[in-house]
């Protein structure tokens, strides 16, 4: 009888499904308050929940919160879901939310996520399932900041040093998967949470294979040892066999980041808008995309992500027009005898950007503009070029959020040491639109303001917006249902089935 039970248990274990993924770096801290690297963030997202989240249409919906309402423009009330359990079986309640906020704002931890909560005045539990959040003033991100993962008070309350605590590697959350094992420079195993409040994930295990070398990941995909993995445009276009395409479905989605050529608007030579427009019209973005991405990218037309509330329904698209560029430069006082000259600064370890700089150099030479390229190691580039603003133009990139925050990049106040307004862009109308949007909790009004901001910035051209690389993912065809959306493909993973 004992032997029969052991055989039955062993058979069930073998039949359990496992999703095989890759991880390019070791997670440093599996803690949503401290997960600042991509590996930590990815693992944390399986283990922890926020009060709200994005659905597949990028709409904010409840996660740990059942519902919410604004009692006042500065008072947000969350009603929490009943019966949610932590992975250790303890009950989740409002005190966990209060504790997470208190820890986030305490001197015990150092995290960039604290700045999102700068307008929060207080968080308190009205009862076990109701949380009251008071803001110092109305704030358009009042709801979305609560996507941050919530920590269990009963586990963390007595921890003296959360930054170095071993709990960061023995994470306990409310999420769909629980941490089973975590190895240094090794694999990560996650197992399905049978008590997950939505429903138990249909795939039993997630096995992250540690692969710091992208080439190794591609070889593992080709060997069909992974269920999912990213592909480069070159791999997609030139290195996929018929058997690979029989086994994997290729999903191509717009990426969540853009590359730009930013002007230093503090310099007299770039204050003339005709010069900036001329450079924009002389850069053939489609050619850059064809050469660097085999067309697996889209032209970027402005500062916010396509498909979001901040993106205009009709976008003015500047079209490659070198003849018009020559005319504008002539109007600004530049010709063959007095050519316009500038230097592009970028980081040498990003080969794609370096190649983009070379293509831009070649394209601008066609209209008589002389371009030099200055490429430096990343840390030196940050310390000696970006931070002190010692550049004429910079070739860099920003990530694109589903709910953007224009203040950091485009408000005049961010044109300071340590700020992200690298171009030194100053526009009073944009400042007013940003300030008014920040003080609204109505995303419809915020959307209108942000679409106007988009149009003004695109017209002013403090940046030449270049391209948004596509995200290309290979997925085992046996796994489904896969529903690509603006938020990616993992939004419904708990419903995935792997036969």
Please tell me about this protein's structure.
The protein is of the alpha+beta class and 499 residues long. Helix content is 29%, strand content 22%. It is globular. 35% of the residues are buried. Residues 1-15 have low confidence and may be disordered.
Highlighted features:
499 residues; alpha+beta; Dipeptide-binding Protein, domain 1; D-Maltodextrin-Binding Protein, domain 2; Dipeptide-binding Protein, domain 3; 3 domains; 8-stranded mixed beta sheet; 4-stranded mixed beta sheet; globular; disordered N terminus
Structural class: alpha+beta
Low-pLDDT sequence parts: 1-15
Q: Strand tally, please?
A: 18
Compute the average pLDDT.
Answer: 92
Domain count, please report it: 3
> What is the highest CATH level, the class of the largest domain?
Alpha Beta
- CATH fold node name of the largest domain: Dipeptide-binding Protein, domain 3
Q: What global shape is seen?
A: globular
Total helical segments: 15
Strand fraction: 15-25%
What kind of sheet is the major sheet?
8 strands, mixed
What is the alpha-carbon Rg in Å? 25 Å
Instruction: Give the N-to-C terminal Cα separation.
Output: 30 Å
- CATH homologous superfamily descriptor of the largest domain: Dipeptide-binding Protein, Domain 3
| Secondary-structure arrangement, i.e. CATH architecture of the largest domain | Roll
Topology:
Blueprint: H1 2-15, E1 18-23, H2 38-47, E2 52-54, E3 60-62, E4 65-72, E5 75-80, H3 94-104, E6 120-127, E7 130-135, H4 153-156, E8 177-182, E9 188-192, E10 205-210, H5 214-222, E11 228-230, H6 233-238, H7 242-247, E12 248-254, E13 257-263, H8 273-282, H9 285-293, E14 297-299, H10 322-331, E15 341-347, H11 351-365, E16 370-376, H12 378-386, E17 393-399, H13 406-410, H14 428-438, H15 443-460, E18 463-476
Parallel strand pairs: 1-10, 15-16, 15-17
Antiparallel strand pairs: 2-3, 4-5, 5-7, 6-7, 8-9, 9-10, 11-18, 12-18, 13-17, 13-18, 14-18
Helix pairs in contact: 8-10, 14-15
């Amino acid at each position: 009888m004992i032997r029969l039970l052991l055989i039955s248990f062993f058979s069930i274990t073998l039949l359990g499904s496992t999703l095989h993924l890759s991880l390019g770096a070791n997670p440093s801290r599996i803690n949503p308050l401290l997960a600042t690297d991509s590996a930590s963030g990815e693992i944390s997202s399986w283990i922890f929940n926020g009060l709200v989240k994005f659905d597949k249409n990028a709409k904010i919906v409840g996660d740990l919160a059942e519902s919410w309402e604004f009692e006042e423009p500065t008072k947000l009330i969350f009603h929490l879901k009943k019966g949610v359990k932590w992975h250790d079986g303890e009950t989740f309640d409002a005190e966990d939310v209060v504790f997470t906020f208190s820890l986030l704002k305490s001197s015990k931890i150092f995290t960039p996520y604290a700045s999102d909560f700068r307008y929060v005045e207080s968080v308190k539990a009205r009862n076990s399932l109701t949380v009251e959040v008071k803001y110092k003033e109305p704030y358009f991100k009042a709801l979305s900041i609560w996507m941050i993962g919530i920590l269990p008070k009963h586990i963390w309350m007595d921890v003296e040093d959360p930054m170095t605590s071993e709990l960061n590697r023995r994470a306990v959350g409310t999420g769909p998967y629980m941490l089973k094992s975590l190895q240094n420079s090794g694999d990560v195993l996650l197992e399905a949470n049978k008590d997950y409040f939505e429903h138990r994930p249909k795939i039993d295990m997630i096995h992250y294979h540690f692969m710091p070398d992208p080439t190794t990941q591609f070889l593992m995909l080709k060997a069909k040892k992974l269920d999912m993995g990213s592909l480069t445009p070159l791999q997609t276009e030139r290195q996929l066999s018929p058997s690979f395409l029989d086994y994997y479905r290729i999903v191509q989605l717009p990426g969540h980041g853009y590359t730009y050529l930013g002007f230093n608007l503090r310099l007299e030579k770039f204050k003339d808008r005709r010069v900036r427009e001329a450079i924009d019209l002389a850069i053939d973005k489609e050619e850059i995309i064809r050469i660097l991405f085999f067309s697996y990218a889209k032209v970027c037309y402005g500062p916010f992500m396509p498909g979001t509330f901040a993106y205009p329904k009709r976008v003015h698209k500047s079209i490659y027009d070198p003849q018009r560029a020559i005319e504008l430069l002539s109007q600004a006082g530049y010709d063959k005898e007095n050519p316009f000259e500038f230097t592009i600064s970028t980081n040498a370890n990003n080969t794609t950007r370096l190649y983009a700089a070379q293509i831009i150099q070649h394209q601008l030479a066609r209209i008589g503009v002389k371009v030099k390229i200055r490429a430096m190691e990343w840390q030196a580039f940050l310390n000696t070029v970006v931070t002190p603003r010692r550049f004429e133009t910079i070739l860099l990139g920003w990530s694109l959020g589903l709910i953007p925050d224009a203040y950091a990049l485009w408000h005049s106040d961010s044109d300071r040491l340590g700020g992200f307004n690298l171009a030194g862009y100053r526009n009073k109308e944009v400042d007013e639109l940003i300030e008014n949007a920040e003080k609204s909790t109505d995303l419809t009004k915020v959307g209108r303001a942000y679409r106007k901001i988009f149009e003004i910035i695109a017209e002013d051209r403090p940046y030449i917006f270049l391209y948004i690389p596509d995200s290309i993912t290979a997925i085992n065809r046996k796994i489904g249902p896969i529903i690509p959306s603006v938020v990616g493909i993992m939004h419904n993973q708990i419903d995935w089935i792997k036969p």
